[in-house]
Amino acid sequence: MYSMSFWEKESVLDRIDVLIVGSGIVGLCSAIALKKNNPKLRVVVADRGFLPYGASTRNAGFACFGSISELLDDLSRESEQEVANRVERRWKGLKKLRALLGDEAIGFENNGGFELFTASDRLVFEKCIESLPRMNNMMLEITGKKEIYSLQNDKVSRFGFKHVESLIANSEEGQIHTGNMMVSLMRKAISEGVIILNGIDIERLEDHPNHTEAICASGLHIKARKTLVATNGFAKKLLSELEVEPARAQVLITSPLESLPFQGIFHYDLGYYYFRNIGNRILFGGGRNLAFEEEHTTSFGLTETIQNRLDELLHTVIIPGTTYEVEMRWSGIMGMGGSKSPIIKKTGNNTYCAVRMGGMGIAIGALVGEEAARMIDE
Ligand SMILES: Cc1cc2nc3c(=O)[nH]c(=O)nc-3n(C[C@H](O)[C@H](O)[C@H](O)COP(=O)(O)OP(=O)(O)OC[C@H]3O[C@@H](n4cnc5c(N)ncnc54)[C@H](O)[C@@H]3O)c2cc1C
Q: Does the beta carbon of 60 sit less than 6 angstroms from any atom of ligand 1?
C-alpha cells in the first residue's frame, strides 16, 4: 500500500479539482482547456505508462479529414448533414491543434493526401469520380477552399507505384511529427500548471455524491472533485457500460531510402492501409481487415499475417524494385465503436468521459478536449 508524504499530499494529491485518467492527446488537451478556462483549478493527469501508452505516441501522424471513398461510404448510411458535420469537426480540430502548439512544433507539413485505386477498386473509383463535384462543394462549405479533391493520375508513375490505376488527391491534407506533437503538448500542459503523473494504473473508479475516488494498482487512492476518463480504447476497464471497443493497429517504418519519389499521406485499399513519408522513410500501417477478431484487443503486439502483408505491399505496390530495410515495427490501441463519433458525456455524479476517437484522434483530439473541459466546467 502506497503511503504518501505530507509534501506529496499538499502539492499534488490533495484538493484535486479535476483528475484526468489518460495522458494521450485527449487527456492533455482537456487539461489545457480546463486550466485556460480557470487557471486556479488543480488539474492532475494520471497515466499508467511512463509515456502515454495507447495511441497518441504510436500513430501515423496523418492530419487528414476524409478520403473521398470513406465519405461516399459514410453517405450510403448517413445524411449529407451528418457526414459534413463530422468532417467539419476534423477540420476544426486540426486547426485547433495547429493553433495550440504551432506548425513548427508539431512538424506540420501540407504535402497533400492521396487515395490510391487499383483495378479491383474500379467501381468505387468510378463512383468517386462521379461524386467529385458534390464532394468539392461539401468541402468548399466547410473549408472555404475550392476543388480540394482532384484526379491526379499523372502522379501514379511519377510516384513509382505499381498496380495502381488512379489517384485522387486532397490538397488540404497534411502530416505531423507525432512524437514532437506529443512532447509539445506535454510541455504546454505543464506550462499551464497541469500536473502529469506517470506510472499510475487506475484499477477502479468510485463516483460519490461530492467527489470521486480512483483506486490505483499501487494501493494509492486519489480523491478529486471530478474525474474525466480519457482512456479511449481501454475505457471499458473503468466504465464498463461504454460502447467503445479496442482496436489494435500495427505499423512499420523503413530505414531512410536513397531517394523517395513521393511525399504526403496515402490511403490504399479503401483506407485499410495507409502510408506516408517521414523524410526519406516510409511509415506504413493497416491490415486490420485481415484479422478483425484478433486485432480486437487491448494487448499490444505484432502478428505475422499483418506484418507479412505490409512487407508484401511495400515490395509489390509502393516501392517495387527498391531495396529497403524495415527499421522498426510497433502497434497501438485505438478506441472504436458502432458510430464514428466520440463519446463525450457525464457518466455519474462527478465522472465524465471523452473516448472513442477511432482512427482520427489527431484530427479531433484538440476539439474533443475543449468540449470535455466545457462539459466539466458546467
Ligand atoms: C497505429 C495507429 C495509427 C494511427 N494513425 C492516425 C493518424 O494518422 N491520424 C489520426 O488522426 N489518428 C490516428 N490514429 C488514432 C489516434 O492515434 C487516436 O485516435 C488518438 O491518439 C487517441 O487519443 P486518446 O488520448 O483518446 O487515447 P490514447 O492516446 O490511447 O491515450 C489513452 C491513455 O490512457 C492510458 N490509460 C489507459 N487505461 C488506464 C488506466 N486504467 N489507468 C491509467 N491510465 C490509463 C493509456 O496509458 C494511454 O496513455 C492512429 C492510431 C494508431 C494506433
A: yes
Q: Are 369 and 35 in contact (CB under 8 A)?
A: no
Phi and psi angles of residue 266, each rounded to the nearest 5 degrees, phi first: -130, 135
Is the CB–ligand 1 distance for residue 247 below 6 Å?
no
Residue found by looking up cell 499508467 in the block: 48
Q: Mind listing the pLDDT tens digit for each residue in 270-279?
A: 899 999 999 9
> What residue's CA is closest to ligand 1, atom 41?
202
Residue recorded with cell 486519489:
222
Helices (H) and strands (E) in the chain, counts: 11, 18
The verdict on the CB of residue 237 being under 6 Å from ligand 1 is yes
Tell me: the pLDDT tens digits for 215-244? 999 999 999 999 999 999 999 999 999 999
What are the start and end residues of each CATH 3.50.50.60 domain in the chain? 6-57+180-244+339-377
Sign, CA dihedral 22-23-28-29, equals: negative
- What is the CATH code for 6-57+180-244+339-377? 3.50.50.60
User: Looking at ligand 1, which atom is closest to the CA of residue 233?
Assistant: 30
Helix (H, G, I), strand (E, B) or coil at 147: coil
Cell of 31: 487539461
**pLDDT tens digit string along 317-342?**
999 999 999 999 999 999 999 999 99
Pick the CATH number of 245-336 from 1.20.1290.10, 3.90.110.10, 3.30.9.10, 2.102.10.10: 3.30.9.10
